[in-house]
């Protein structure tokens, strides 16, 4: 997979994108990340990237030209890849696991990170998606882009060692993940549930599903409305 990021703050990506799974995926050649500074594409002799809004109003807007030219340069250097171009915007569609799964199917993702008060509206005509990482306002799109890259790259089959663990993650099943335990069996008088130690896989699976339902019911009841409950789930919910 190829990922391009357009930002005014390339240094923000230096540490985080070199570590852990994302760093390894790049070392192994499964992932190529290019960070570009769209200020370098400004046609203005002072390299300005923002300007006052027509009609007045508070703050500055990002100009369309530097971003357009940066995107053209990416198209020129990767003419053959199918691109998904994502604009980071707190007013965009909320990012979720389903979107990460869609992004993981793509060949080439391009993230545009904004700053300042907003975008010249014509920037939106250059993108395929406008995405928010949550109902809060960040100083810019960089952290949001990193969140989306992280959630996407870990789903690439070559990247996540244990494929099963992505399929059973909280959110990918439509339920939050059930509680899990590792050794010791007792810690400060807190015990591992008996059922997990008896080796009866049918009972264990039933317990895990019940606890996943319980946790989702308590913490995220909204999630139960968006999945189709199986007969087994309905029985467990009534218990
Ligand atoms: N830029 C500023 N806040 C943002 C958010 N919540 N999501 C995406 N981009 C942003």
Automatic annotation (TrEMBL):
It catalyses: guanosine(37) in tRNA + S-adenosyl-L-methionine = N(1)-methylguanosine(37) in tRNA + S-adenosyl-L-homocysteine + H(+). Gene3D superfamilies: 3.40.1280.10, tRNA(m1g37)methyltransferase, domain 2. Residues 1-225 form the tRNA methyltransferase TRMD/TRM10-type domain. The keyword Transferase applies. It is found in: Cytoplasm. The keyword Aminoacyl-tRNA synthetase does not apply. CDD domains: TrmD-like. GO terms for cellular component: cytosol. S-adenosyl-L-methionine binds at residues 114, 133-138. It is an enzyme of class 2 (transferase). GO terms for biological process: tRNA N1-guanine methylation. GO terms for molecular function: tRNA (guanine(37)-N1)-methyltransferase activity. Keywords: Cytoplasm, Methyltransferase, S-adenosyl-L-methionine, Transferase, tRNA processing. InterPro entries: Alpha/beta_knot_MTases (IPR029028), tRNA_m1G_MeTrfase_C_sf (IPR023148), tRNA_m1G_MeTrfase_TrmD (IPR002649), tRNA_m1G_MTases_N (IPR029026), tRNA_MeTrfase_TRMD/TRM10 (IPR016009). SUPFAM superfamilies: alpha/beta knot. Its EC number is 2.1.1.228. Homodimer. HAMAP family: TrmD. Specifically methylates guanosine-37 in various tRNAs. Belongs to the RNA methyltransferase TrmD family. This is tRNA (guanine-N(1)-)-methyltransferase. It comes from Tetragenococcus muriaticus 3MR10-3.
